[in-house]
Amino acid sequence: MPDNPKTTDAKAHPSVKILIASHKPFRLKITDDILTPAHTWRSLFVKEYQEYKRSGQSRTNHNMGAITDFDYEWMIRNTIACDSGDNTLNDGKRIGGIACEFWAYNNYEKLDNPDYIGSIMHRRYFVFNRDDYKELILHFDRLSDDFLDRIGYSPFVVRNVMAKYDLILPNLSFWGKNRTNYQQYKESHCSTKELDFCIAAVKQDYPEMRECVDRYFFNEHMGYVLDMYIMKKDLFFEYFEFLYNIYSKLKAANFDSTDYSIYDDRAYAIERMYGVYMYYLVNYKKVSYKTLPVALVARTDIIHNPKPKHGANEIPIIFCADGNAVDIASAAIASIMSHSSTVRHYSIFILSSGVSEADEKRLKLMFEDKPNFSLRLIDMRDYIGENNTFMPDANGEYESDASYYKLWLPAIFDEFEKALCFDCEIAALRDVAELYDLDMGDNLIGAAGDTDLFVQSYYFHKNSAVTKEYISETLKLPSPYDCVQSGVMLCNIKAMKSFDFIDKCFAWLKDHQNTMRGDQDAINAVCSGRIFRLQTKWNVQWHIAFAIQPHFALPLPSTRVTGYLPQRYCDDYIDARDNPYVVHFSSAHKPWNEPRQPLAEVFWRFARQTPFYEQIVYRLQEEQDRIKYSLRRLLKNKRRVYRTLNAITFGLSKSIRRSIVAVETEIDLLKQ
C-alpha cells in the first residue's frame, strides 16, 4: 500500500512523545524528551525484588529474569511506572507493552499533552532512513551508542515526518498467499476462542467496521503487527476508546486459560485488534499515513564490566573460546585448579560469542566446592558491533573469531591492573600465580617465543623466504625470532589502555587484511619493543616434535627438531617440552583428534576431571566419523578414476597395476 501524506497545511513543529515499553534496563543513549522509557510491570517488578532481598532467592518469571540492585535502581530512576495512577486495566504481563499505552490513555496530561504519541519497545524501533526497504524487519545485533543515528532517528526527523502524516505504522507483514491474518493467528496459538470473541465484539459494537473486520481477517494475506505506531492525539484517543472497550469485554468473559502455555497466556487477541483498527484507519477512514521498517535488536542489556573483588590476592584469568569450545576450556580450567594455591583467588572469565544454558550449568558445577575460584561468562556480542573488522574469509567478508577477543581486553577489564589471557587449548602444570606475579615493568604484554614460526622461517623450510619477508616487511620486526605466540599472555591492562592498544591493533588489521596469523600478527607489530619475553616453558607448543617432517632419519623422537631450529632454540624447546609449565595444544593437531601423540595424555588427564568428559569423547567420535566419511568418498572417486584409466590404457604394465592396487589397499586400511 502506498503512503498517504496530508493534503492540507500541517503544524510545523508538533510535540511528540514516544513510549519505549520495557520490563528491564536497556542500553540506549537518549538525549531528548521525545523517547520516554516506560516500565510495563512496575508493581510486579517491585514485589519480586523485595522478595529477593528478603529471602536471598530470586523467584522471577522467565520474562523478567533475576532482578539485581542495579536493575531495580535503574528502572525506578529512568522509567515511568505504567501500572500506577489511574489505570484500571492494570493486568501486568498479560497485556505486555499495551499496559504502557493504557496508562498514557488514562494519564495523558502527565506526558504534557503531546500533539502526537507513539509506542515502541526496547527491542523494536522505527527506521527513518530506509524508505526503500519494504520488508518488515531490519536486524541489528545490539543497542550501540550510535544506534539512533544508524536508524536515522532525531527529534528533527520525527517532528518533520509527523508534520506530514497523521499516522506512522510498521511495514505490512506478509504471511504467504495461502494464509490470511486469521489463519496465521490460528497456526501460531493453541486456541482462537479469544480472537473469535473479540471479532464478534467489534462487529456488534462497531457495525461500521464489520466489512473491515471480515476483509482484514479472512481475505487479507498481509497485516499490521508488533503494536507500534506514532499517531495524532485525537486518533490515539479514538483508538484506545475502541481498544479499552473490547479488552474490558474480553477480560469480563474470563476465558479459562488453565491449559495455556506461558506464551499463550498473553492477551494476543487484543494485540490483533491493533492490526484491524490500523487497517480501518488506513483503508476506511483514509487518514494520512506512512509505513516504515522496524529495527529488531537482539541484544539490549546494559554492559557491566567486571570489577576486582579480592584485592592483591586476585588473579584474573581470561579464556577466549567460541561457544562450541567451552568443553575444551573446561579441561584448561581443571588443570589450573589442580595446581592452584589456597591463599590466592582465581577469577575465571570466559569470553565467547554465546554459551548454551546446558554448558553454563556444567561449568558452574566445577566451581561448587572451590571457594577461591569464581566464574563469569562474558558474551562478546555485547562489545563487538556489526562493523568491526576481523580476518577476512574466503569471500572477502569479515567475521569474528575467538582469537580476536583478546584484542578487547583493555575495554572489558579496564578496572584491572593485570590479567592472564589463555587460548582455551592449554593445560597448566604449574600454579599460574607464578606467571601472574612476574614483574613485567612497563611492557604491554608478556609472551613466549613462537617456536612454530621459528621452524617455518628456518632456512631450508619450503616457505621460509615468504615467512621471513612477511615478518620483515609487514610486521616490521628485525628477525622471526622476535615474534611471540599469543596463546599465553600476561597482560598489563593499565599500560595497554594508555597505549590505545585496541585502536592501534584494529587499525593495523584494517591496513593489513591478508595476515598470516591474524590477532597474533597485530599484537607483534603493535607491541614491538614493549613485550616481556616469557620462558618457553610457559607456552610449550605440543605439535613441534611430531608434526614437522624431518629431511633425514634421526635416532630419537626427542631430537626430531634438531634439523629445524638453531641450536639455542632447539635446546630451549626440548628442555621446555620435557618440563612444561603450560602445554599449548596449538596448530590444527588436537589431542581430542590425535590422542596417541606425545603430551596428549596431559589434556585427557584433566578432561576426565570435568563434567564435559563424555562430550569431549563424543567430539572425538564425531571427528573420526567425519574422516571415515571423507575417506569413503575419496575411495569411491579414486576407484572411478582408476577404472577409467584402465579402460583407456588397457595394456598397462604390471608395475603400474601393482601401484594402483597398493593405493587402493592403503585407502581400505585408512577406512578401517
Return the structural class: alpha/beta
- Report the portion of residues in β strands: 5-15%
Q: How many helical stretches?
A: 24
Number of beta-strand segments: 22
* Low-confidence runs: 386-400, 550-559
What is the residue-mean pLDDT, rounded to a whole number?
84
| Rg calculated over all Cα atoms | 32 Å
Q: Give me the side-by-side strand order of the main sheet.
A: 3-2-1-4-10-7-11
Dominant shape:
elongated
Distance between the termini: 63 Å
Query: Could you describe the largest sheet, including whether it forms a barrel?
Result: 7 strands, mixed
Approximate helicity band: 25-40%
Question: What would your notes on this structure say?
Answer:
By secondary structure, the protein is α/β, with parallel strands linked by helices. The chain is 39% helix and 15% strand. The chain has 24 helices and 22 strands. Strands 3-2-1-4-10-7-11 form a 7-stranded mixed sheet, sandwiched between helices. The chain has a 7-stranded mixed sheet with strand order 15-14-13-16-19-18-20. Helix 7 runs parallel beside helix 10, helix 9 (233-253) packs antiparallel against helix 10 (268-283) and helix 23 runs antiparallel to helix 24 (654-671). The longest helix is centred in the last third of the chain and has 36 residues, at 613-648. The chain is elongated.
